[in-house]
Design goal:
Helix content is 4%, strand content 38%. With 506 residues, it is mainly β. The strands form 11 sheets. The protein has a 5-stranded mixed beta sheet with strand order 25-32-31-27-29. The protein has a 4-stranded antiparallel beta sheet with strand order 2-3-5-6, with no helix packed on it. The radius of gyration is 34 Å and the shape is elongated.
């Protein structure tokens, strides 16, 4: 075995021997390809992550190196060809791009330099894919705009760019700024260095509520850094001030917003072991969901915002199940607001119809359960009958699912000597970690053997009365209305007719 590995990978003999001498822990079979090497003779000190452009190539920056040893913006093809798109001179065009670049909606690249510019306080630049650089703004380093932007930019939904500076501003401890594509800068907030924080090294994110979120490495109530929210209008709220104890200190990096709506990040120091922490920040205020009385749900009409109009006390997006545009089927059903808003499980199909049959059914249907959450979850399953109806049997009473995973269960409806009528209930899917539930309605019908009369209205032929017995059509009346007419030609009485709309059930 060793000889085979040495013959196939002669350049990795020492690595193979090291793995064979390890304690037997399994390692994924991955291969690392060095696409480019940076060094004293060329580009140096890349500190920011790459981005992939719309052309499929990768783009990044180096803090130093290049023709003038002031940093570069480079392009890297997937095959490993490295091209310097622009080499900073260290003069008015800037120097030391610590952050990477973004590709904006116009196809150009945008970034910052931490030094250089007219006042040697850093710049914001635009770079075309062909390598033409334009300085959109040069920071003055004074009290009006900030200095030393270590972080990169984001392009918000309004088309403008947003970023931070570590220094400068009214208190010389950093700012948050807005930059229009034309190069006009507005300081949205100048940190005071007290409770609101100081020295934002990291950039911003725009969350689902439209506001911006970031961190300061210093300042706050305990001078250990903060996580803050900034509205587009410039109103700052400190969401959390680190104490420097077990919660951590000095969040140099920014935060991200996960699919659960919470914010996640890291601190550089502090924590129980003194080497920093990873944290989650979520609202401590209980969520209040308000659903005004919805518009009537009519058979054959798709669900719309007139029914799905819930509001909540926290930012976020509602995920309705069934979603807008769904035409509900006839049969048993439950409209459960809590399950619709907070669902962690999805079921397909969304309802189980065992259709119409005799009093001795033995029918089976398949039901697929999917985990919509962001963590592994256990789900309890149960069949809940209504009004004395028999409950179906389930092939599983519990399932464990990883995020995005699905499992199929069999639902068997078996009974004997059922009388005429409808038998309904729901399959309960309960998330054991959150207590949230999803309900999947089921329905079965047994027709009556008692003859019934149905009057069919026909404008041309008048009323035709038919008798239905063993083979009668099972139906429900879903709309009834009375129509009134005036006096007849004799003036002796009024005529009152009833129109009934029926729908055939499967």
């Amino acid at each position: 075995m060793k000889k085979m590995l040495m013959r196939l990978l002669p350049e990795a003999v020492s690595l193979v021997i090291g793995l064979l001498a390890a304690s037997g822990v399994a390692h994924a079979q991955m291969r690392l390809d060095v696409l480019a090497a940076f060094g004293p003779a060329g580009l140096q000190n890349p500190q920011a992550p790459l981005i992939q452009g719309t052309d499929g190539n990768f783009y990044g920056t180096t803090v130093s190196g290049g023709t003038f040893s002031a940093g570069t913006v480079f392009q890297l093809t997937p095959a490993g060809t490295l091209t310097v798109l622009y080499a900073f001179t260290g003069g008015t065009d800037g120097a030391g791009p610590v952050a990477g670049v973004i590709q904006a909606a116009d196809g150009n690249f945008y970034g910052t330099t931490s030094q250089g510019g007219a006042a040697n306080a850093g710049t914001v630049f635009q770079l075309t894919p062909a390598g033409a650089l334009t300085v959109l703004y040069a920071f003055t380093g004074g009290s009006t705009d900030g200095a030393t932007p270590y972080a990169g930019l984001i392009q918000a939904t309004d088309g403008n760019f947003y970023g931070t500076t570590v220094n400068g501003g009214a208190s010389s401890v950093g700012t948050v700024f807005q930059l229009t594509p034309a190069g006009a800068v507005s300081v949205l907030h100048a940190f005071a260095g007290g409770a609101d924080g100081a020295t934002p090294f990291a950039g911003l994110i725009q969350a689902t509520d439209g506001s911006f979120y970031g961190t300061t490495a210093n300042g706050g109530a305990s001078s250990a850094g903060t996580v803050f929210q900034l509205t587009p209008a410039g109103a700052v709220s400190v969401l959390y001030a680190f104490t420097g104890e077990t919660d951590g200190a000095a969040p140099v990096a920014g935060v991200i917003q996960a699919t659960d709506g919470s914010f996640y990040g890291v601190t550089q120091s502090g924590g129980a072991l003194g080497g920093g922490t990873a944290f989650r920040l979520r609202s401590a205020i209980p969520t209040t969901i308000t659903w005004n009385p919805p518009a009537p749900i009519e058979y054959g009409t798709a669900l719309s915002a007139t029914q799905l109009d819930a509001t909540a006390s926290v930012p976020g997006t509602f995920a309705y199940m069934p979603p807008a545009g769904t035409v509900l089927q006839a049969g048993a059903g439950i409209l459960n607001m809590a399950a619709a808003v907070n669902a962690t499980a999805a079921a397909a199909p969304t309802e189980l119809s065992f259709q119409v049959g005799d009093g001795n059914p033995n029918l089976s249907r398949s039901l697929t359960i999917s985990n919509l959450g962001s963590s592994s979850t256990s789900f309890q399953l149960a069949a809940i009958a209504r009004g004395g109806a028999p409950a179906p049997g389930l092939s599983l009473s519990a399932i464990d699912l990883n995020p995005g995973a699905s499992a199929q269960i069999a639902v068997n409806f078996s009974a004997s000597a059922l009388g005429p009528g409808q038998y309904e209930g729901y399959i309960l899917v309960a998330d054991t970690s959150t207590g949230r539930e999803a309900h999947v309605p089921y329905w079965y019908g047994v027709p009556s053997n008692t003859p019934a009369f149905i009057t069919v209205l026909n404008a041309n032929q008048g009323s035709v009365q038919t008798q239905s017995g063993q083979d009668s059509v099972l139906f429900r009346v879903i709309k009834a209305a009375f129509r009134h007419f005036g006096k007849n030609t004799e003036g002796s009485h009024k005529c009152r007719t009833r129109t009934t709309k029926i729908v055939r059930l499967p």
